[in-house]
Design a protein that fits this description.
The protein has 14 helices and 22 strands. It is an alpha/beta fold and about 450 residues long. The radius of gyration is 23 Å and the shape is globular. Strands 3-2-1-4-5-6 form a 6-stranded parallel beta sheet, with helices on both faces. The chain has helices at about 10-20, 35-40, 55-60, 75-90, 105-115, 125-135, 215-220, 240-250, 260-270, 285-290, 305-320, 335-340, 350-355, 435-440; strands at about 1-5, 25-30, 45-50, 70, 95, 120, 140-145, 150-155, 180-190, 190-195, 205-210, 230-235, 255-260, 275-280, 300, 325, 345, 365-370, 375-380, 405-410, 415, 430-435.
């Protein structure tokens, strides 16, 4: 697939590296020659220097021949203009990053479709929704629903008290009882393992579990940690993510939002009428203790600096806060943050990648989730009639070694997949795959 990316900032460069690694032909546009040079040194891409909102530059990038145009410039208006022009010039699909929730309202989305923009994505909104979802499932580090909640992916670390420690993984035998959940991957020592027959759970494993809706509560208890009822929460950072979290939750729980910028704090106090706004530096240990950090059920650090978020999250953990979530945009810091005990990491680049990846797949991908603590992706497919997946039981399909099917939704029925499960046309299949296999697995369902 030929893909043109407008914007060589952090998000654009991440997308370029990720998509070029999957065999796509990538061209990236930016007016900053230094940013282009950095991207060119890290990924196999063509670069075009110039303004992506001009016809001349878009023509130089050959957008008339591109299959997908992605606008991720820093300025929202530049993205809308660039995506509109690219579609008019011949791009098959055109998508744009935005920063305004108003644009996502149904009537307004229709206007953008009329302009030629196929899809708008607002990373901060999706990241905020992930945090809110996790606050309802506090024993997990990630939680994702598929097929309207009929299947769920829960990710959690095995504590010493977990009943799974030392047990063998199930799902590999023939004729066994129907399962209500299945572990589809394990992260151990920084390495992601697709489990096979004979694999056992170890203390400290981060496990990725696909579960039926009726089994989610039982799966949560397997971590060895109890779920926390969040009543008091502190948010560090009046960013778009922080504001959205407070806006959606301030009617339900007690929220304190801390921001070091006095002018911003005053503005937030005017708009978030049920949230207590505090003008303070979140790195100041004494100040945070005075504001009652140790009494919080949950702490969410979403300032614009990964380092600040990590340090503040470490402090919250030390103060005994039960659920700690930090935004870490520097991908190099994610493993560090997880290793020092931060419960959950959110990253807008990975959120965006999950939104965009499905546009690069040739088959019917209904959803895709790029996981924070692993290189792997979880994908949801709709199986087409007479596709290879319908010809044999799962064990005989010849799936790549680093891919595993977790669950199947067939109408109102939900199955956890095992080796002898037979897939049917129009099933919704949730599959876990490492990067090398993401581009290959679509063949089985097409």
């Amino acid at each position: 697939m030929k893909i043109v990316i407008a914007g060589a900032g952090e998000m654009g460069s991440h997308l370029a590296r990720m998509l070029s690694g999957n065999g796509h032909d990538i061209t990236i546009i930016d007016a900053d020659q230094k940013l282009l040079a950095e991207v060119g040194s890290l990924a196999d891409v063509l670069t075009v220097e110039g303004d992506s909102t001009t016809f001349a530059v878009l023509r130089r990038a050959a957008v008339r021949r591109c299959d997908l145009f992605i606008a991720v410039n820093h300025e929202e208006t530049d993205n809308i203009v660039a995506a509109t022009l690219a579609k008019r010039l011949g791009a098959k699909k055109s998508i744009a990053r935005i920063d305004n929730n108003e644009y996502l309202e149904p009537d307004n989305k229709e206007l953008f479709i009329d302009m030629g923009i196929d899809y708008l994505f607002y990373p901060e909104k999706v990241a905020a929704r992930e945090v809110i979802n996790l606050l309802g499932h506090t024993s997990t580090t990630e939680y994702v629903d598929f097929s309207s909640g009929k299947l769920s992916l829960a990710v959690f670390r095995l504590e010493p008290a977990s009943p799974l420690v030392g047990e063998a993984l199930s799902g590999f035998g023939e004729g066994q009882e129907a399962l209500s959940y299945r572990t589809v991957a394990i992260t151990r020592g920084g390495e992601t393992i697709i489990p096979r027959l004979g694999e056992r759970y170890l203390e400290g494993d981060v496990i990725y579990v696909i579960a039926r809706q009726d089994a989610v509560h039982d799966v949560m208890e397997l971590s060895g940690r109890s779920n926390i009822d969040v009543r008091n929460m502190m948010i560090l950072g009046g960013s778009r993510i922080g504001i959205r979290i407070a806006t959606e939750l301030q009617d339900e729980i007690n929220i304190k939002l801390v921001d070091y910028n006095a002018e911003k704090a005053y503005r937030l106090a005017e708009t978030l009428d049920k949230t207590l706004i505090i003008n303070e530096d979140g790195r100041n240990t004494e100040a945070m203790m005075e504001e009652g950090l140790s009494n919080m059920d949950a702490f969410v650090a979403v300032t614009g600096r990964s380092e600040t978020n990590i340090l503040a999250a470490m402090l919250a953990k030390r103060m005994g806060v039960k659920k700690v979530i930090a935004e870490v945009e520097n991908l190099n810091y994610i493993n560090l943050a997880e290793s020092i005990g931060i419960d959950t990491i959110i990253n807008k680049k990975l959120v965006t990648a999950s939104n965009i990846f499905r546009f690069t797949m040739s088959t019917d991908v209904q959803a895709i989730k790029c996981l924070t603590g692993s290189d792997a992706e979880v994908l949801e497919f709709i199986v087409k009639p007479n596709s290879p997946a319908t010809k044999a039981p799962i064990k005989d399909l010849g799936l790549p070694e680093d891919a595993i099917i977790g669950g199947i939704v067939r109408g109102d029925k939900v199955f956890i997949a095992v080796d002898d499960t037979q897939i049917s046309a129009y099933d919704r299949v949730v599959l876990f795959a490492m990067p090398a296999s993401v581009g290959k697995v679509g063949y089985y369902f097409n």
